[in-house]
Amino acid sequence: MEPDMRIIRQWADEIANKWIIPLLGGKKLQIEWELNRKRRVLGTCSKTINYEDTVICWVELSRPFIIANEEAAIRYLLCHELAHIIHHNHGPEFAALLRQMTGMEIPDDRIRFQYGDYKKAAGFTYKCLVCGHEAVHYKRLFKQESCGICNPYKFDYRYVMVLQGEAANLPPPKGVTYRCKVCGNEVKKAKTLRRSRLSCSICHPGVFDPAFEMFKVDTGLPSTTFPRPLTVTMSIEYNPRIEHYISGDTEGWLL
Fold first, then answer.
1. Of 110, 134, 154, which residue constitutes the final position of a domain?
2. Range list of H helices, 87-193
3. What residues pair up with 188 in beta bridges, in sequence order?
4. What is the dihedral sign for C-alpha 45, 46, 47, 52?
5. Which of 4, 28, 73, 217 is the most buried (most CB within 10 A)?
6. Does 150 reside within a domain?
7. Same domain assignment for residues 220 and 133
């Protein structure tokens, strides 16, 4: 689900028109918005540029935070970031302006963005069906993972962690499948291998062996496609100050 930036801009315009623009001394305000995937830094307001008649600033908001929270938490985040247009630190002047904008009694030690009991960015919850242990990951696991309590130090299919919630109905993440042409063993990787080469661990475990190199299932290319050699094309301009002489037998020369 993608956040509706039209509504967020509308809330930001209401806050800016009431509290920020009157403090700019008649200048116009231009805000460049951007959503990121950060889960610990919930918002930033940086690169504020003051021109003669316009103030331009760049505001980044945490997309996972916006998805997980309600209007009150998002408005508080907008107040915090827009207040940085006037004050670029978390000093007492910033704290006074933020209390005035939000109408909340915020302690000085919590003046950085800590919206009470706001919801943390949603993650993916995995549960062991044997012992009930749950683990939350910010990203969806590409490979299966077994319970670290039931059988630590080693993967065990008996204690595989199962994805819970609505995310369990989503299609599995895409990846790249490599296959051994000798025995047909397949290995799935999250991304295309760029630097390391992969050989079949069943035919020849341990050290890499080019005789058992894994090939992509879709394209038939080897596990690592080396880049083409660099081709440099040089264009030499004629300089009339330099005289060029060729004498003798020129057969076989590359000119």
1. 110
2. 92-102
3. 177
4. positive
5. 73
6. yes
7. no
Residues listed for the chain: 255
Q: Is 241 exposed, middle or buried (0-12, 13-18, 19+ CB in 10 A)?
A: exposed
- How far is 207 from 201, CA to CA, in rounded Å? 9
Exposure letters 182-201 (e unless 16+ CB within 10 A, then b): eeeeebebeeebeeeebbbe
Question: What pLDDT, in 10s, does the model give residues 8-26?
Answer: 999 999 999 999 999 998 8
Other beta carbons within 10 angstroms of residue 141's beta carbon come to 14
87 part of a folded domain? yes
Strand partners, 186: 179
* Encoded tokens for 212: 């058992």
- CATH at residue 92: 3.30.2010.10
The residue range of the domain holding 93 is 5-110
Query: What's the half-sphere exposure (Cβ side, CA atoms, 13 Å) at 24?
Result: 25
Query: What pLDDT, on a 0 to 100 scale, did the predictor assign at position 232?
Result: 41
The sign of the torsion formed by the CA atoms of 45, 6, 140, 128 equals positive
Residues 192 and 160 occupy one common structural domain: no
Give the total number of structural domains in the chain. 3
Structure tokens at 155: 């993967």
Give the tokens for residue 58. 């760049």
Using CA atoms, how far residue 189 sits from 156, 170, 174, 180, 220, in Å, is 19, 19, 9, 14, 15
What digits encode the pLDDT tens for the residues 164-178?
A: 887 778 777 777 888
Name residue, tokens 């231009």. Answer: 30
